[in-house]
Structures are given as structure tokens and as C-alpha cells.
């Protein structure tokens, strides 16, 4: 594989180089376009050099609380978001000839008001939602992430297979350590040539993405079954939003008194902070898609939220669902699409009704929350217009009733367009997930458990490095539940949910088959399993007090997280790992600066055990 950027001695802050390059070439840092491949690679490489000793001292100083006044104070400028940026450029060349796409990202703290309430938030390149990554299958992606914040971060590429590049998966405590403040990390990997569709990227360190570090990934391919069946592409990013930094909410959530201050009266363990609002393309109001009449639009729906399942619809327009999590589907017509955290759907919308403005609806499914927010406006509206000048729509909602549970689109409607039957399984992995009271903290803190383990990020000793150093290992910290397979194994992951809420679970680095799901506990030999072209995806919702059976092959070497994507729940411990082919993990050429960045986390000054305090702003 291509050489990775290596740490260079004595260099101070390569962000200066980035700015210098940007200025000298007349490109602003807010530019979302990928940089074209540099002709002089030596010159470009300079951009990857990470800070050495000087930055290390700065970080230690920060860790000791001496960092104030070092220029890390967040800007009170606002971020940028324009409605037109969610319409994809139709001139993007879809080809099967791979190229390399370069992006320069700066993550920083700014003030913003997506729903009208100003608060500090975290953004990439001053954009919210963050920059679009648009590639073809097989392209090499290079994203140089410079962390200008006062806390560590990582960027995860949700749904990317990362075959052979698990160390680019961007998962704190599993595949890397947080990128320290003032330093950078260059993510470089090849988009799997067999992958296409709608994906996203987000920070993967505690609940940090809740504060704004997320954005879309679109992978085109002439091989995609639905390629050529639509005229234009548009993004519809749904997210829930809070008025407080996630650190404060998480602190309260994990405290012995719980988010409602009463330890849920003992009745509601795991009750999450309910959001303050919902956003469509980064706005609570004023989000608009200005379309052309008589075209077929592929709306790429992505739920980048932390807790909320949305019901998506467009008044008076039937939606044809054609993709779920990167898998093309046999088209199925619906009025509304339920989309849980981290899931994606593509729907085809035909702009063939009367010219005018129509409501786009993203209704927040409060039935999924354990704790309601009486002030929440659940119906988030945007405007779709074609054939006329936009006005405030007076169109009406579909009249079909909303589901009373938050479940995925029925699996009979998620039929892969390219049929694939799973091979026979060779291993059953039984997992139960629950919330339980613990007494570790001297009180009765409620944590999430996978079997008997409540996960905590090993932020200075990620499991990938534990394997890279020792090869196959079977002993882990008590906070790590790791299923190790050094042979290619076909795993049936059977999970029972002992919590009353449903949970969207994601498996990194794989597409799994969904063999079964239902109420109650899984009954071997009784619960029905579907083995003929079952749904395939990377994120599915396990019903409250229900079960799921998913099947996948451990042929992708690395450490892969399987976790609830509700930010609060992952931070409370609902995460386990699959260690696949660890002998191969040992052969990875992991960039040496990753080890260096890990060593900088030592002493607990940046991050300690279940230490969510580090998420706060450095002001
Ligand atoms: Cu969207 Cu663990 O990731």
C-alpha cells in the first residue's frame, strides 16, 4: 500500500503549512471541493507532517490546565450552511476508473445556532453539516484532519469496509487514540470497489459527534443497480439537536441521579437526554430543496442524530425506496420512511405533480424516548419547490397513522436487488444487552451492558494496538468484550434486548444479513429465520424486549465495534468488539504517529477511565 505519512522530528505545527498552501493557491479553508492530486507529491507530503516535540509540550500543558490563552478559544463566528449545497453537482463524473481524492479538514469550536439558539458547537471547515465526501467506488480517499479543538477527536467512516485498513476506521479506543489538540491524522484508504451508495462520517470519541462533527459520504458506481434510474441527487440529512454541549448532558446522564435528577425514580434506567429540536440539513426551519420539474430525484436520507428515529415524508409525493445502507433494493413505494440513528435510505421522488411548494416532513418519533421533552417541536419541516418560486407550503400530511413503536422498515420491504443467500453459520455468538445499576462510582450509576461488560474506551491503549503488539490475544481489560476469531468464521450474532426501548445497532467494517428479528427472546429452532436473500445492511434496530439474529463473515482483519448508535448508550457502555484474523492484524503497517499520539494520552491528563469530562471546551 502507499506509504503513510510519518511523524517528522522537530516540526511544529503543520496547520500553518496548510494555511500557507491554501492562501498561496487562493483556496479558502472553507472550500469543500477535494483538492486535486498534487503534481509535486514531495511538496504535498509536507502537509501530512504532524507536530513533534513542540506540539507534545503544548498538549501536556493543555492537559495540565495551562492551555488557556493559547489561542484555542472558540470563534464567535457562525458556520456556513447553504441549501444549494445539498443538491449534488450533476457534472460529477461517475466512472469505474479510480482516482485519489484529497480533502483538508480543520475541526474546530465555533458558535452556531442551527435552531435559533446560539451555543458552542464543533464543526469541520466551518460547515454544518460537515463537508461532503463524494467519490467513485475504488477511489482512494485521503482526508487530512487537523484538530484545532481543545480536546481529542477521531473521524469514523460509517459503513466503509476498510478491508486491510482497519487502522483507518477512526474509532477511539479500538482502532486509534484521539488526535490530540493541535495535531493531525491523515486518513487514507481505498473505497471498496464493491461498495456504493449513501454513507456518512462522524467523530467517534464519546458523544462528540452530537456537537456537530458529521457529514455525508456519497459513493457512485456505474455498477450500482439503480445507477441511471434517476436524474439528480440530493442529500437530506436529519439530526436531533441539543442546546447544551454533550459533555454536560453526558455527565448528568451518567451521574447517580440520572438525567432527570431523580435517578428515574428507579423506574427508567438508561433514560436519555431528550433533544431540544430536530434539523433538516442543519436547520430547524428554512431548509429548502429547489428542484426542477419532471425529473426523478434520488433523495439520500441520512440520520446523523444521536437519539431520535425520524419518519420522513414529502406531502403528496410517493417515495420509492431503492437503497438501504448502501445496498440497492427492489423498489418499493411508501408514504413515509422510518429512519433510525445512523441508517440511510435512498428514495426516488418524481417532481411530476402540480408546480408548487410542498412540505418535507421529518417527524421525531418521541415514542422511542424514555423521557419526553414537553418543549420539543416534533414536526420538523422543510420546503420542496419546483416549477415556481418558493412559497410557504400549505400542503397536508399523509393521513396514514404513525407506528406506535420505533422499528425499521419491515424487512419484507428491504429486498436486495442483487440477491445473495448467506453461507451456513459456523459459530453462534449470544449477547444480551441491558441497562443495570452499578456501584462502582459509589452511587447507583446506570450503565449499559453487553453480557456482563460495560464498555469503556481504552483511549491510550486501543485494542488494535494490543493485537498489533502481541498477535492473537484473549485477555482484555474488564471493560472490553471481544470475540476473537483467527479463522474465517461465519458468525450468527444473536442478541436479546432486556431493555424496553429499541436500539439501532451498527457493526463496523461489515455488511450483515438480517436473518430474524422479533419480540421476546430468541428461541433456537422456533424463532423463524429467513435464509433466502435476507436484508443486508450495516445498522438495524433491535426491538424493545426483542431479539435480532444477524450473520456475517469474519474475513475482514481488524477490530470491529458492534454498538448501539444512540450516542448516550454507546458512552454508557453498549459496545462490544469482534477481533477478526488477529494474526493478520499483527502484520498491519500502522502509521507510527498513531503510537505517538497514543503515548500523548498518558497520565490521564487528556482522557481517563470513562472520563467524559475531556469533551468540554477549553475555555
Ligand atoms: Cu457510525 Cu461506530 O459508528
From TrEMBL:
Gene3D superfamilies: Cupredoxins - blue copper proteins. PROSITE patterns: MULTICOPPER_OXIDASE1, MULTICOPPER_OXIDASE2. Residues 107-223, 234-367, 473-582 form the Plastocyanin-like domain. GO terms for molecular function: copper ion binding; oxidoreductase activity. Residues 11-24 have a biased composition (Basic and acidic residues). It comes from the Eukaryota. The chain crosses the membrane at residues 47-72. Coiled coil: none annotated. Residues 27-38 have a biased composition (Polar residues). Residues 1-38 are annotated as: Disordered. Keywords: Copper, Disulfide bond, Glycoprotein, Membrane, Metal-binding, Oxidoreductase, Transmembrane, Transmembrane helix. InterPro entries: Cu-oxidase-like_N (IPR011707), Cu-oxidase_2nd (IPR001117), Cu-oxidase_C (IPR011706), Cu-oxidase_fam (IPR045087), Cu_oxidase_CS (IPR033138), Cu_oxidase_Cu_BS (IPR002355), Cupredoxin (IPR008972). Belongs to the multicopper oxidase family. PANTHER family: ADR239WP (PTHR11709:SF414), MULTI-COPPER OXIDASE (PTHR11709). This is Multicopper oxidase. It comes from Hydnomerulius pinastri MD-312.
Amino acid at each position: 500500500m502507499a506509504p503513510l505519512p510519518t511523524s517528522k522530528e522537530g516540526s511544529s505545527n503543520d496547520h500553518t503549512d496548510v494555511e500557507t498552501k491554501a492562501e498561496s493557491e487562493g483556496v479558502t479553508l472553507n472550500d469543500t471541493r477535494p483538492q486535486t492530486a498534487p503534481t509535486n507529491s514531495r511538496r504535498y507530503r509536507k502537509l501530512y507532517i504532524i507536530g513533534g516535540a513542540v506540539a507534545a509540550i503544548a498538549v501536556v500543558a493543555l492537559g495540565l490546565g495551562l492551555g488557556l490563552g493559547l489561542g484555542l478559544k472558540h470563534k464567535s463566528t457562525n458556520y456556513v450552511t447553504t441549501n444549494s449545497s445539498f443538491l449534488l453537482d450533476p457534472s460529477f463524473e461517475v466512472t469505474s476508473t479510480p482516482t485519489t481524492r484529497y480533502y483538508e479538514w480543520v475541526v474546530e469550536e465555533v458558535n452556531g445556532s442551527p435552531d435559533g439558539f446560539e451555543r458552542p458547537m464543533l464543526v469541520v471547515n466551518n460547515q454544518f453539516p460537515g463537508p461532503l465526501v463524494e467519490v467513485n467506488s475504488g477511489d482512494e480517499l485521503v482526508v487530512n484532519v487537523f484538530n484545532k479543538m481543545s480536546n481529542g477527536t477521531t473521524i469514523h467512516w460509517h459503513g466503509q469496509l476498510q478491508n486491510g485498513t482497519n487502522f483507518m476506521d477512526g474509532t477511539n479506543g479500538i482502532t486509534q487514540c484521539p488526535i490530540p489538540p493541535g495535531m493531525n491524522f491523515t486518513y487514507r484508504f481505498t473505497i471498496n470497489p464493491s461498495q456504493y451508495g449513501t454513507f456518512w462520517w462522524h467523530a467517534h470519541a464519546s458523544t462528540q459527534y452530537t456537537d456537530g462533527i458529521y457529514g455525508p459520504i456519497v459513493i457512485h458506481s456505474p455498477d450500482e443497480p439503480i445507477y441511471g434510474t434517476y436524474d439528480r441527487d440530493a442529500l437530506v440529512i436529519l439530526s436531533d439537536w441539543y442546546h447544551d454541549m454533550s459533555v454536560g448532558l453526558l455527565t448528568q446522564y451518567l451521574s447517580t441521579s440520572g438525567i432527570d435528577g431523580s435517578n428515574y425514580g428507579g423506574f427508567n434506567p438508561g433514560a436519555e437526554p431528550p433533544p431540544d429540536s430536530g434539523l433538516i440539513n442543519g436547520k430547524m426551519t428554512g431548509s429548502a430543496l429547489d428542484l426542477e420539474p419532471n425529473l426523478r430525484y434520488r433523495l439520500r436520507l441520512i440520520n446523523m442524530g444521536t437519539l431520535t428515529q425520524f419518519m420522513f415524508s414529502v406531502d403528496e409525493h410517493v417515495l420509492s425506496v431503492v437503497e438501504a445502507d448502501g445496498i440497492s433494493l427492489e423498489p418499493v413505494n411508501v408514504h413515509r420512511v422510518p429512519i433510525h440513528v445512523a441508517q440511510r435510505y435512498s428514495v426516488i421522488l418524481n417532481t411530476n405533480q402540480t408546480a408548487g411548494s410542498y412540505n418535507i416532513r421529518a417527524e421525531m418519533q418521541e415514542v422511542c424516548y424514555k423521557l419526553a421533552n414537553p418543549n420539543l417541536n416534533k414536526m420538523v419541516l422543510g420546503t420542496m419547490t419546483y416549477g415556481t418560486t418558493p412559497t410557504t407550503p400549505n400542503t397536508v400530511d399523509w393521513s396514514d397513522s404513525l407506528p406506535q413503536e420505533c422499528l425499521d422498515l419491515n424487512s419484507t420491504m428491504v429486498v436486495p436487488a442483487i440477491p445473495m443467500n448467506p453461507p451456513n453459520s459456523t459459530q453462534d455468538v449470544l449477547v444480551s444487552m441491558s441497562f443495570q445499576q452499578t456501584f462502582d462510582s459509589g452511587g447507583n450509576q446506570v450503565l449499559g451492558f453487553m453480557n456482563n461488560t460495560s464498555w469503556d474506551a481504552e483511549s491510550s491503549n486501543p485494542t488494535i494496538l494490543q493485537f498489533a503488539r502481541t498477535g492473537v490475544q484473549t485477555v482484555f481489560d474488564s471493560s472490553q468484550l471481544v470475540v476473537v476469531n483467527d479463522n474465517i468464521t461465519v458468525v450468527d450474532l444473536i442478541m436479546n434486548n432486556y431493555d424496553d426501548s429499541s436500539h439501532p445497532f451498527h457493526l463496523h467494517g461489515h455488511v450483515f444479513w438480517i436473518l430474524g428479528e422479533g419480540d421476546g427472546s430468541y428461541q433456537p429452532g422456533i424463532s423463524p429465520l429467513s435464509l433466502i436473500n435476507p436484508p443486508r445492511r450495516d445498522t438495524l434496530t433491535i426491538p424493545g424486549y426483542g431479539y435480532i439474529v444477524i450473520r456475517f463473515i469474519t474475513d475482514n482483519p481488524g477490530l470491529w465495534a458492534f454498538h448501539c448508535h444512540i450516542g448516550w448508550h454507546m458512552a454508557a457502555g453498549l459496545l462490544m468488539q469482534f477481533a477478526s484474523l488477529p494474526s493478520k492484524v499483527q502484520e498491519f503497517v500502522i502509521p507510527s504517529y498513531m503510537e505517538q499520539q497514543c503515548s500523548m494520552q498518558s497520565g490521564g491528563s487528556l482522557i481517563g477511565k470513562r472520563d467524559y469530562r475531556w469533551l468540554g471546551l477549553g475555555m
